[in-house]
């Protein structure tokens, strides 16, 4: 049985380990923690073995620690690195490469350049099989992941009829659980957002994609405003909406008032972490003007990348057929059931 270690227990790591712990094809051997805080007790209470850096062992003397991160890495077939952005590269150089262990990195890291963690950004809708023979792969950020679910179906159906994509990303300020980050009464912009090059890395360098990114004062999801320009008259809004009817991890909603409306409903029906794990096309504000489709969708920050990590894990560890991998992920995440419930609740009136 393949052994998996989750290095980090923050917003992403805590979600990933709680889902993949139910995967009978792997053994989750533990989780890495770097700070002696309440999350250590939380992980232990859930039955996870907690490992810490050797140099920090004394700081965790009040907890039942299972050992050192440096040692448990050697026992792993794959590490899912869920450390804060930028730390993944350090972990790769000091832990994973010296011990010859494969790893998945998260979207706060870099591809290319001096601090590259991998040569591939994974998107299950676009390049699933490319992860088969890769030792190190980066899972795209939530925004980057969501864009693949939108762009690839358009590319497959319309091809050369597509002229360009102009997207404005309204990014949430901080995650729901992030009590350390104060949400400011401000709107801030990002100069040269990484999302553009990250998406092109898996969609193709010639993809006519142009992105602006703004950070807005909310913890409730991201919203993307995407203008899709065609060479000639654009398809109807209904044709575009129908394109995503059977897409995995894409729900079509009609009467949501805002992102908190969706999150509150997810909480009311006991979705884990209040996550939907998908993107939501807002059909009632999607429209066509001449050669342009104006598409609006929200992106379930953090939650959207968790099933993607599970799909990537299957590609790297088992080289599992794509359709079989999606079936297995569905067994753990129940995405189709969530989609059905969301679409029924936010149905066209």
UniProtKB/TrEMBL annotation:
* NCBIfam families in alphabetical order: PRK04207.1
This chain belongs to the protein called: Glyceraldehyde 3-phosphate dehydrogenase (NAD(P)+) (Phosphorylating)
Q: Which GO terms describe its molecular function?
A: glyceraldehyde-3-phosphate dehydrogenase [NAD(P)+] (phosphorylating) activity
Please list the residues that make up the active site: 142
- What residue ranges carry the coiled-coil annotation? none
Q: What are the UniProt keywords, alphabetically?
A: Oxidoreductase
Gene name in the database record: gap
For this protein, the record's InterPro entries field holds: GlycerAld/Erythrose_P_DH (IPR020831), NAD(P)-bd_dom_sf (IPR036291)
Q: What is its EC number?
A: 1.2.1.59
